Amino acid sequence: MILSLCTGRMTSLQMSAQEEMVEKFLDAAARGDLKQLCALLSHTPSLLNQTGYSGWTALMLAARNGHHHLVEKLLSLGCNKLCTNSSSQTAYDIAKFWGHRHIARLLSLTDDGGLRGGTLSPQENYFSRETLDRLSGKRSDAAWLEAKQRDPDTVYLLFSNRSPMATVTKDTSGDGADVKLCRFRYNAVKDLLQKPATVLVFLGAERTKNPPSSTTSSSSSQTEQDTPDTPVWFAINSDEDAAELLKRCENSSCFFPKTPNRDLLRLDEEEAGVVAQARSVLAWHDRYSFCPTCGSPTSLQEGGHKRSCLNPDCRSLKGVHNTCYPRVDPVVIMLVIHPDGNQCLLGRKSIFPARMFSCLAGFVEPGETIEEAVRREVEEESGVKVGPVQYVSCQPWPMPSSLMIGCHAIATSTDIKVDEDEIEDAQWFPRQQVVDSMFRGAHQTLVIPPRQTIAHQLIRHWIGINSNL
Ligand SMILES: [Zn+2]
């Protein structure tokens, strides 16, 4: 076996004794011989991460052959599970490929010396948590909405220029969320509700954590059962001076985020989900205050989820028109994988922080499928041609109302020709460099976008490591 023990000044005899020991150790891992593995390790702890033929570690061999108890033991001793072999596979990839799901799960869930990447669950992206029950059926119930506005339990979020009033907190959650939304009650905002320029949007009701038992709900009417008796939330956008609005909050550290792309990523998952909805709808009101069909003034309806034209002759009042409802703009965002499977294509825009590269992305055009949009955008921006496209997950991105449709795509060509009007640079990055950059701090030439972005999650998905790490 080829070894990586070339440090120190060893004689050829010592070298071969070392080689022999590593070979024995790796053989024990491959056979599932826990007793021998432990005996060798207690004698020579440095064997733990040694590699043999093609860069395989003991963990990889144990994962390949389905030895769950060995994998467990090696992880408990702190072995490095992010090592890759000469085919750029981690132990997780190997376990997954050979169908040892219980081992793959073990490798994906176990903490690895402080490499936690946040609290997102697999397939859940930031801004995508449905914190509130939207109760869309209640939006047309004007009397119910009006009563809820005056309810002392109702929560109001106050927006200025589409940014929510928030305050900086001491981070206690451990996931880096250090900004909290300021919550107001009816009495603190009722004057704003009277002003014609104020936009009010019904967001939904808090979800019941403990649903009522069958004995207590049996006497309720159907309507009461359909409408949970939990506090409802509204968002208000006010055109009043922001400094004056801030005086309404008792907390002196409150502020309206000036750079939403950065500041809104500091909320916890629950509040980020609410902001995703509120900010997009408020931004729509801001940009569509007049009828897109005839240019007449419009009125707010359905709890702020519809605008109707006030011109009785307008075409938009006949039939169904999507101009009456908040818009969502589909964007494809894709990690393009090299035909060899071991490199990915990342690009950077000049506005990115230094050394940051991310997935390519672009708006879906009318009459275009997701797959075609991926192929077109990748070729336009980088000159690389793409074959198969696979959907992975999506993310609402309220800047102001995109839906990021995350895909993996396999390249069929590799030459890069950057469209400098769109991006500044694009490069193929080897898997090991991406792994290093993501888990071992900023790499000299590569910084990956933060975990709240779907680009980060698409890259994580590719390197085969569970988001819960
Ligand atoms: Zn109109």
UniProtKB/TrEMBL annotation:
EC number in record: 3.6.1.22
GO molecular function terms attached to this record: metal ion binding; NADH pyrophosphatase activity
Protein name: NAD-capped RNA hydrolase NUDT12
Cofactor: Zn(2+); Mg(2+)
Residue span of region Disordered: 207-231
Entry keyword annotation includes Magnesium: yes
Keywords noted in UniProt: ANK repeat, Hydrolase, Magnesium, Metal-binding, NAD, NADP, Peroxisome
Pfam hit, one: Ank_2
Organism of this sequence: Oryzias melastigma
